[in-house]
Amino acid sequence: YNACLEERRDAYRKQRISVSYLDQQNQLPAIKADRPELIPLGSHALQETCRRVDRAFAAFFRRIKSGGAPGYPRFKSWRRFSGWTWPDPAGWKLVAAGGRSGKLRISNLGHVRIRGKARLAGALKTCTISLKGGRWYASVVMECPLVKPDGSRIRAHGAERLGMDWGVETFA
Fold this sequence. Notes:
This protein is of the alpha+beta class.
């Protein structure tokens, strides 16, 4: 993240050129050749990190255009950026084991036991690994079909989405 941010900042300061996400993405194979410690993450996780920088700059320019407080993207310490994301199922797989819990298989790292039963109710989308409070956590996003209480599927029209977030008081 910091290397992508530094490249964009220095390119603009020194040469007045803008570096795009595609420019940075195309440099990743050469960077991985120079820094073999990045190879286990795979290209998709590195590309997603470049996308995070690109989204930070897009938000910065959007705020400038709307007249808000711009907030230039900042460098992040390892405490503020302690994880990585695979934007698609390449590099990881959720495996349902026959027993009580399943496993998350991460390429180049191995299997990680998951808590609870592996529920493969939909199409796997993203996996984010993050460090919080000294422990590693995985967040897996799935796209699941909408189902009515009677078990029949709900047809989503166009860009309709459904999300539920119950507070403890409301749910109780």
